[in-house]
Amino acid sequence: MDAFSIEGPVRISGETAAAGSKNSSLPILAGCLLTDDECIIENVPDLRDIRTMLRLLEMLGRTVERRGGDVVVHAGRVTSTEAPYELVSTMRASISVLGPLLAKEGEARVSFPGGCAIGARPIDLHLKGLAALGAEIEITHGYVHARSPRLKGTTMYLAGSAGSSVLATDNVMMAAALADGVTVIQSAAIEPEVVDACHFLVAMGAKIEGIGTTTLTITGVPRLHGCRYRVIPDRIEAGTLLAAAACTGGDVFVRGADSSHLGIVLDVFGRAGMTVTSSPEGIRLQAAGNVRPVDFETLPYPGYPTDMQAQMMAVLAHAQGTSVITEKIYPERFIHVAELNRMGADIKLEEHTAIVRGVSRLEGAPVMASDLRAGAALVVAALAAEGTSLVRRIYHVDRGYERLEDKLTALGARITRVRDQQ
Ligand code: EPZ
Taken in order 62, 66, 72, 75, is the CA torsion positive or negative? Predict the structure, then answer.
């Protein structure tokens, strides 16, 4: 396995470019199954998770081709409607093929996704929504088997105890796009990636009203056609690069980042003492001499994104004061706390809240990534730490960040990818 060897402290400064969004690309690539026509998806990042999704589409019988930053899903019919365990177990977002396969082929058999380091990752809302559209669903031998000769539109409420669900909203609206009649999804997720998936479906000929609101009205159509569609920039990658500047007293401009997708994150950076400047070209963060403490809790959009919780914790670990971070989406998403404490941070956990008492400087240390955002947070912390850090199991980081070491090196980091026995 690979690890990152990182020398700190350095100032992360300069200009970089935002990649295409992983969390837009994954459901949109799955949505290509809604038509036999060719789809060209632009600005798709070259990530481990994207390669997994492309392998899944090929296992289902479709021909896919990477053309630089674009992915072509060639015209053709699926030859299988089964997403196997050995693939789904490596990427939970494979569940995104359930709705499109069911709607287009009348059947889908998808391995029940397991949990992961950040929590149980249930799919009850996905199944509730598809059953509401008339799908017969059974769970046998670790697989979800969904069948329906014809889906029928209906009105449904699609939120759980933690609020709305991003991929459940995607799955249900994609199935509804080919159902008979009108489907109303109440309490739909409104993350920018869900809005992007709506615009992609409309480009295929779907009829969707209320895009960007928590009530989506989808009028089913007999068929959808191919399209060319460009995914939005990755707001979490952009936020991570800004956190690297914030953590190291740096000054970074992320070209192509869309500040309208990062409102509350930029607000937290501002309250932490950073100077954030947004423009149509991108986002600039200039770090102040010191970091101020900030309290926040993670919530569904437009609340603070759970995928930026760990990275902001790495910044606030340096604050002059104590910050309180409450995780309301994935209550267990704190494995990075123990690793940051190994670097000299002073963070205590109480239930689903982290009490982050700032310290003046972290120290380099060997640490271990547990999920892609925790791994990114450890990289951010290591850039600011005194001495050498070894961030292990960076295959987690490779899932969501394209050659992160290259981007950071161009911004002044001393980071190299090394082989590791762990
Ligand atoms: C998406 O996952 C993202 N993944 C996650 O990003 C992100 O953390 C998450 O949304 C929340 O923003 C992709 O888009 C590929 P959810 P998703 O369904 O859709 C509960 C990353 O780092 N829930 O919105 O699977 C769930 O347990 C990844 O890029 C149910 O209870 O998340 C959680 O508490 C990690 N039942 C909350 O809802 C369900 O059927 C939000 O989960 C589904 C979810």
Answer: negative
Could you tell me how many residues make up the chain?
Answer: 422
Calpha distance 4→2 (Å, rounded): 7
H or E segment to which residue 287 belongs: none
Backbone angles phi, psi at 322, to 5 degrees: -110, 130
Please identify, by atom number, the ligand 1 atom nearest to the C-alpha of residue 330.
Answer: 34
Model pLDDT for residues 154-169, shown as the tens digit of each residue: 999 999 998 999 999 9
Q: Tell me how far apart the terminal alpha carbons of the chain are, to the nearest angstrom.
A: 6
Ligand 1 closest atom vs CA 93? 15
Helix H, strand E, coil C: the string for 125-193 is HHHHHHHHCCCEEEEECCEEEEECCCCECCEEECEECCEECHHHHHHHHHHHCCCECEEEEECCCCCHH
The CB density around residue 221, as the number of other CB atoms within 10 Å, is 14
Domains and CATH numbers, the chain: 2-18+233-419 (3.65.10.10), 22-230 (3.65.10.10)
C-alpha pair distances (Å), 239 with each of 265, 339, 352:
7, 21, 23
Rg of the chain taking only CA atoms, in angstroms? 21
How is residue 201 written in tokens?
């479906």
Each residue's pLDDT tens digit, 257-274: 999 999 999 999 999 999
> Is 116 part of the annotated catalytic residue set?
yes
Strand partners, 180: 152
Overall pTM > 0.85:
yes
The residue to mutate among 165, 187, 330, having the most atoms of ligand 1 within 8 angstroms of its beta carbon, is: 165
Residue 124 alpha carbon, nearest atom of ligand 1: 40
| CA 92 to centroid of ligand 1, rounded, Å | 10
